[in-house]
Amino acid sequence: MRAIYFEEFGGALSVTDVPDPAPPPHGVVVAVDATGVCRSDWHGWQGHDPDVHLPHVPGHELAGTVVAVGADVRRWRPGDVVTTPFVTACGICPECASGDQQVCRNQTQPGFTGWGSFAQFVALDHADVNLVRLDGLSPTHAAALGCRVATAFRAVIDVARVRAGEFVAVHGCGGVGLSAVAIAVAAGARVLATDPSPDARQLAVAFGAEHALDPADATSAAAIVDLTSGGAHVSLDAVGQVAACEASIRCLRRRGRHVQVGLLPPAAGRPSVPMELVIARELAVLGSHGMAAHDYPRLLELARSLPLDRLVTRELPLDAGPQALAEVGAAAHPGITVLRPDAG
């Protein structure tokens, strides 16, 4: 099969022929119809994720068609059209037993612990636990749901528990951030967004943000406090940057909730969390890590009302993937880029 492949961290990305995957006994092989290009993939390529071993094929946001099934799989057959969370859970550990597959202690992750979906085919573990059937949703839109929209959904709805009328600040308007803006607006919140890109800020406003600020302005956190008459009820670092994390906490009102969604690998530096504010204002500092497959029906219901056509701003063939991944670090393109391995 053809795949995007690298042999050293931060090194050359090439589209080359590699062996086809085989399904594990509990898993499947999926022919990839569409796969999103995410900042997490860029972190893996840069060597920021200890689970990535060389040589490697990245990619973890996907939709496609089952083409091979392991002997122990009961729920799925070749021809089924599916997506999956980026955490493929074991289904039997204590966390999975309690319904929290997104923090499974035995999790695997396509594109991180194993080869991923920047390829014509990808193997997925524990299919009966992790696959989600798609019905009427395009592969391009389903691939966008797989990490960024699903991650934003759970962060906004389940972790932050955003309520109608609350002020929500979203720091970083890439795929996760724009999804968070749209989902918070759908929940009845009043949203403020920050991003250094004018195009990303424009998209945030199009998705319903009342204000879109440039975080390069050192007073952006203070501006959010002023615009909300005391601070945001909820604030999300949706990009995973030291400055965004710190600004997210500083812009909260008393008893506000910070949710860390964007990855903050140690190589990117450690944020200076203002614990004096956390204590004095009784702030909640929360983490959010994807979403379990059994929660996807709620997401798929909401997806019908989300502006997915505007969220996915580029569809590219696999051959354009190396350049698209290299551009992620500079945030050169707003919205979500999706690769179509079957597009030639």
Automatic annotation (TrEMBL):
Domain Enoyl reductase (ER): from-to ranges: 10-339
Q: SMART domains this protein is in?
A: PKS_ER (SM00829)
Per the record, the domain of life is Bacteria
The record's keywords, sorted A to Z, are: Metal-binding, Oxidoreductase, Zinc
| Cofactors, names only | Zn(2+)
| Coiled coil start-end | none
The family classification in the record reads: Belongs to the zinc-containing alcohol dehydrogenase family.
Q: What is this protein called?
A: Zinc-dependent alcohol dehydrogenase family protein
The lineage is:
Bacteria, Bacillati, Actinomycetota, Actinomycetes, Cryptosporangiales
